[in-house]
Amino acid sequence: MKEIAVEQAVGTVLAHDLTQIIPGEYKGAKFKKGHVIREEDIEILLSMGKKHLYVVEKDDTDVHENEAALRIARKAAGEGIRLTEPSEGKIELIAEKRGLLKVDEELLIDLIDQDEIMFACIHENIVVEPGQKLAGTRVIPLFVEEAVVKQAEGVLDRRTLIRIEPLHSLKIGVVTTGSEVYSGKIKDAFGPVLVKKFGELGSTVVKQLFADDDEEMIADCIRQLIDMGVDMIGVTGGMSVDPDDKTPSGIRKAGGYIVTYGAPVLPGAMFMLSYIDDIPVVGLPGCVMYSRTSVFDLIVPRLLAGEVITRRDIKKLGHGGLCLNCEECVYPNCGFGKA
To answer: Phi, psi (5° rounding) for residue 22?
Structure first.
């Protein structure tokens, strides 16, 4: 930027907004950043008390903020994300389809490590809906050097920065354990909850089996469901550390490779994640049945998107893993599950 007398400013580009105040009538930006000063503007500017202006000095190769933001946004956005028209240098990225939002955090940091580049997004690993705002980007100055934009594009050529992974429609099997349910002494309430929860995510519970507190019986039910061709299994009940809770040992006996037994999440500390071959088998604690939001909502959508969850992925939930049990749940528009 440079300072210039108003009378000499015709044809130059304004570097910032200029506010006009007419008492009792008007207060607002009379001239916006990027406005090219015209002859007829001079008297108005003088009446606003402006004797000097800060204007932009640009080279022929410099890139306007709108074009720079568009080039960055196009490179950053994956399939299923649309871009808004540039507005005062800013472009927003909007979801066009439902799915699990994924953000490459390392790539994001590399991109905005350039002082002239701004890119802000919402947290990843939540289910987003069509029309939802995901991110916004712009460059800081009105004009930026071509080399800056080229460097940003080079960073974004490595991988996709922000994308939406579709939620696959899977066949879900459920094993409900517990002698009280198996014997008919109490009515199962967990099954209907899972039918609803998986249904909301686009998957279907195709079969529910019941087992006594017996690890061999639990393992047999799991094997039956695998033979039926289910894509994922949820095992409910008996997930505590009480000696008579056989669900974890039943999953192990069925051949489950245990990723983790226990999660740094409340509600959901007794969650178990395991795999039998490539089939996820999740041990679901009782909180999934009665809590509006729980570990189920943090992990299951990622599994439905085809993500292979690691032990480290689970442990990372400790930062943000405490649900505050708000009187009115606004998840995912809160900090639950987000580092």
So the answer is: -115, 105
